């Protein structure tokens, strides 16, 4: 058994000193983590809690008071839930997807045989990026245009629509095809999870001697990997739900939960999926659009020149998305990809911009969280008949501004550091053709816009 202090030293060294080969097996260092996944009731408890919580949120949103100052579902959904999901990208990757409550009804129907159990069609596997990107655009548009963070019934309908999509896919296809191909939130989480400090990977030396591959196919009365991967096929954090099912299924203890430096996957090339060449610029572009849309000067322009708020925001969203696509294309040109270079299969600017995109989304969600946190006791009291007005408090706008700027600065530093690591990793023969100084200036301009929009 490794002494506790040594384990903590190894942990800190891996997190803060970049070494692409350094890993700490958390299952070996802290066996209680492995035992947590081996006992399925632990994950089942989390899922059940999530199912009950979201059922309550939907019911309160539909049938509770529609006055936002008297309905707790808004703060719980947009403040607590969304902020927690974004924070989870960095700390536990896609673990949220492993306990996602939207799959509850679909899983239940599959368990009782109400499922066609079809294989996902080729068209779904081919066009999943377009579908998930469109759905995420619809969510962002609806959230902003309808001011959904202050509309209980609208929030409930949004949750119901996601639940319906996940349930329909569960009835049609085996496993969790919704998670693997369609879920817009899952794709965003998968992109953010590429900079997670943990990864679940199999010991491939052990897997080579396995003729069963129960982690993918299942065994006896236990189903296999819900997204058709299996631990032996996991190469990055984009798809693995970190549900731990493979830990339970594998009798050779091949799956390992590894601690790593958060930048390892960003610059390794394993995270360069073509899908995220569209997901990340839209996520970042939508952040700029949402920041601008909430500014006083834009509201004045909107009222003067646009009849429809929906159309004006749609145009703004498309403009910001196109702008980020141009930024990424120009950055790729500066890096000068060449045939045979491992980055030529995708966009090298995507991993460079992920830290800024992560921090931008976190800031947007935390602003709402801190603005509404102090009012929540009073809102809870008004809805359920308690006098809790004396427990209200407020977080000053200056404090929120400082916090927002600090997070953006950390994200900017992350993007600059990723640029540096990326340039060091390039082949010497390609290094002379790349202009990483200009790439840093480009990243600096993106960083400056984020600061300007949050100051």
What would you report as the Rg, rounded to the nearest angstrom?
A: 23 Å
Please, what is the average pLDDT? 89
Give the quaternary arrangement of the chains: single chain
What strand line-up does the widest sheet have? 1-5-2
Distance between the first and last residues' Cα = 50 Å
- How can the largest sheet be summarized? 3 strands, antiparallel
Integer count of domains? 2
Q: Can you characterise this structure?
A:
- By secondary structure, the chain is mainly alpha-helical.
- The protein folds into two domains: 24-193 and 198-259, no CATH class; 275-454, no CATH class.
- It is built from 23 helices and five strands.
- It has helices spanning 4-16, 26-29, 31-38, 40-63, 73-92, 95-98, 104-111, 122-145, 152-172, 177-182, 184-193, 204-207, 214-217, 245-249, 264-268, 276-293, 296-305, 309-335, 349-373, 376-384, 397-425, 428-431, 436-454, and strands at 24-25, 198-202, 218-219, 222-223, 255-259.
- It has a three-stranded antiparallel β-sheet.
- β3 (218-219) and β4 (222-223) form a beta hairpin.
- α4 (40-63) crosses α9 (152-172), α5 (73-92) runs parallel beside α11 (184-193) and α5 (73-92) packs antiparallel against α19.
- The longest helix has 29 residues, at 397-425.
- The termini are far apart.
- The model is unreliable at 338-345 (pLDDT under 50).
Summarize the structure.
This protein has helices spanning 4-16, 26-29, 31-38, 40-63, 73-92, 95-98, 104-111, 122-145, 152-172, 177-182, 184-193, 204-207, 214-217, 245-249, 264-268, 276-293, 296-305, 309-335, 349-373, 376-384, 397-425, 428-431, 436-454, and strands spanning 24-25, 198-202, 218-219, 222-223, 255-259. With 455 residues, the chain is mainly α. β3 (218-219) and β4 form a beta hairpin.
């Amino acid at each position: 058994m490794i002494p506790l202090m040594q384990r903590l030293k190894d942990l800190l060294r891996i997190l803060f000193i970049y070494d692409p080969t350094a890993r700490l097996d958390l299952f070996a260092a802290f066996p209680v983590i492995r035992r947590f996944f081996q006992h399925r009731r632990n994950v089942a408890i989390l899922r059940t809690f999530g199912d009950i919580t979201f059922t309550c949120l939907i019911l309160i949103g539909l049938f509770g008071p529609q006055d936002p100052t008297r309905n707790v579902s808004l703060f719980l959904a947009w403040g607590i839930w969304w902020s927690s999901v974004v924070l989870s990208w960095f700390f536990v990757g896609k673990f949220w997807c492993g306990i996602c409550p939207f799959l509850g009804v679909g899983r239940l129907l599959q368990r009782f045989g109400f499922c066609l159990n079809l294989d996902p069609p080729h068209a779904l596997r081919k066009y999943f990026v377009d579908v998930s990107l469109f759905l995420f655009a619809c969510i962002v548009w609806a959230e902003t245009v309808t001011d959904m963070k202050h509309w209980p019934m609208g929030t409930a309908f949004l949750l119901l629509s996601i639940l319906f999509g996940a349930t329909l896919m569960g009835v049609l296809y085996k496993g969790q095809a919704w998670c693997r191909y369609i879920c817009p939130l899952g794709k965003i989480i998968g992109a953010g999870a590429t900079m997670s400090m943990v990864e679940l990977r199999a010991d491939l030396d052990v897997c080579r001697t396995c003729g069963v591959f129960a982690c993918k196919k299942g065994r006896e009365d236990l189903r296999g990997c819900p997204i058709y991967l299996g631990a032996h096929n996991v190469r990055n954090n984009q798809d693995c739900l970190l549900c731990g099912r493979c830990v339970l299924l594998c009798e050779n203890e091949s799956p390992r939960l590894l601690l790593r430096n958060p930048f390892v996957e960003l610059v390794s090339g394993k995270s360069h999926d073509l899908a995220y060449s569209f997901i990340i610029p839209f996520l970042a572009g939508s952040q700029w659009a949402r920041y601008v849309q909430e500014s006083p000067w834009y509201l004045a322009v909107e009222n003067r020149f646009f009849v429809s708020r929906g159309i004006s925001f749609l145009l703004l969203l498309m403009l910001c998305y196109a702008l980020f696509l141009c930024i990424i294309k120009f950055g790729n040109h500066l890096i000068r990809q060449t045939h045979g270079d491992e980055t030529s299969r995708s966009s090298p600017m995507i991993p460079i911009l992920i830290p800024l995109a992560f921090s931008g989304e976190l800031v947007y969600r935390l602003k709402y969280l801190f603005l509404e946190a102090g009012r929540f006791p009073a809102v809870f009291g008004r809805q359920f008949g308690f006098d809790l007005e004396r427990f209200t408090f407020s977080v000053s706008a200056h404090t929120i501004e400082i916090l927002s700027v600090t997070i953006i600065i950390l994200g900017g530093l992350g993007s600059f550091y990723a640029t540096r690591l990326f340039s060091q990793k390039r082949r010497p023969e390609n290094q002379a053709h790349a202009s990483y100084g200009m790439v840093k200036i480009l990243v600096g301009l993106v960083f400056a816009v984020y600061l300007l929009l949050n100051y």
